[in-house]
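so im writing up the methods section and need the Tripartite tricarboxylate transporter substrate binding protein record in one place, dumping it here so i stop losing it
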Amino acid sequence: MKTRIPRGIARAFAALATTLATSLATTFACVAPAGAQTFPSQPVKWIVPYAPGGTTDVIARNLALRMGQDLGQPVVVENRPGAASIIGATAIARAAPDGYTVGTADSGTLAFNPAMYSSLTYDAGKDFTFIGGLGRMPLVLAVHPSFPAKDLKEFVALVRKSPGRISSASSGPGSPLHVALELFKQRTRTDILHVPYKGSSPALQDLMAGQVQTMFVDLPPSLSMIRAGKIRVLAVATPQRLPILPDVPTMAESGLPELAGFEAYAWQGFVGPAKLPQPVVARLNQELVAALRHPGTRAKLEELGIQPMPMSAAEFGDFTRSEQKLWSGVIKAAGIRLD
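--- predicted struct ---
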């Protein structure tokens, strides 16, 4: 004997079943993105492709501390120096795409190396997920205090009178300081003798001693020397004057039309291996931007001459591609090869 269910109760059960099905579908549809809500569930490794104590390391450690507090898991900096950042960059590129190994990639890693090496152990355009910007270090053109030119116009005129005789140091072939010099030479059509060193420190020491006459320098390692009058800055390679050097004019203020819009920075960004899940990228970017905008962290960086560079992942990708286009042209025109 069949039990007959009243029509009203049957309709109620059907409605309840539909509601439960919809609820379950919504729940399961959210499972994949919700995985990002549990990220990170373990410490995050931040690879720095340079030795401890330098500008790149300082930026990473300041931001890692703040981000670790907000993420609820430690962000541990691991230094992998060597081979013009190639060793560290390759370690990032070959890591598992889960967000637990990320790191710093700078202008050398992403914009210079692809144009200077015939082959690399990573592909700057395919092997990374762009997460966001970190910071940029404005470059300035400095001379020994006894150098006769008092401003940039006098400097260019003097260089043109003595082609190949005025020396300019850099931290090494293919460094941001070197390619900025090459851009300057190309824009002004001048011949300046490039003298490469193994790092900024010995180059700055020889500039202070008068062994070389000029140098593009970035601010973090040179700011104390500028303030002490041991080197003299002719111009900053930024669109506006720097608050940290308010009396120093920009390249554009020199009155030389070929230097209008001249900009040069050493910059750094935050990347992971290719194919990082979008929710993980979004979480890392969120905490990175918050750390860069934190008043205490921002003040520490700006005190060193570092300009925080908060960007979305898409903005940093666009920025990187524009820098690749600019500097690859400069490098090829200068004939810089490192292999």
